[in-house]
Design goal:
Length: about 180
């Protein structure tokens, strides 16, 4: 049978290991989101370069002012369409990242909470002199963690509602305030 200090050490190590796993999962989610944004921007740059090449070739073949007006009007409209498509895709990436972080937070918090509960069970076996400061520390840590999670989670649904509305605006339309 383990002694109390060994049990505390093992339980604390399990909590720290769970936190490292959580941090790694968050870093991976952030990296995946960054990759999605980079891919989106690279595709947008390729599309813009291709459109610029087509527009330049069309400009070289213009014969009169009327063709120039028609061409610039058409090119402007296509540029607006590309911009709106980019906005929708960026909103999709942002919503995907937000959903991934929400799921990750819920699962990782549950896993970490389980490890801390195991640590609390070990602390309960400790003499009162040892257990009281640890209990106070854990209570404060939990209250802070819950308050932080609640603050992060609160604005998320509102931002999910705003993204599709903002992505659909264009041509004189405005998102509802």
């Amino acid at each position: 049978m383990f002694t109390l200090p060994e049990q505390l050490s093992l339980a604390t190590k399990a909590v720290f290991d769970a936190q490292i796993v959580s941090a790694t999962a968050c870093a991976q989610a952030a990296f995946d989101s960054a990759v999605a944004v980079i891919d989106l921007n690279l595709e947008a740059a390729r599309t813009c370069m291709a459109a610029a090449t087509v527009a330049a070739n069309q400009l070289l073949s213009i014969k009169d002012g009327r063709e120039w007006i028609n061409l610039t009007t058409g090119q402007s409209q296509m540029a607006l369409d590309r911009l709106q498509a980019y906005g929708r895709q960026a909103a999709d990436v942002a919503q995907g990242a937000q959903a991934k972080f929400s799921r990750l937070a819920e699962t990782e918090i549950a896993a970490s909470q389980q490890k801390v509960i195991e640590l609390v069970d070990v602390v309960k076996q400790a003499p009162t002199v040892v257990a009281k400061p640890i209990n106070t520390f854990l209570k404060t840590a939990f209250q802070s963690a819950h308050a932080g999670y609640d603050q992060i989670k609160r604005p998320a649904p509102a931002s999910q509602e705003l993204l599709p509305a903002a992505a659909g605006t264009g041509r004189g339309e405005h998102a509802p305030a």
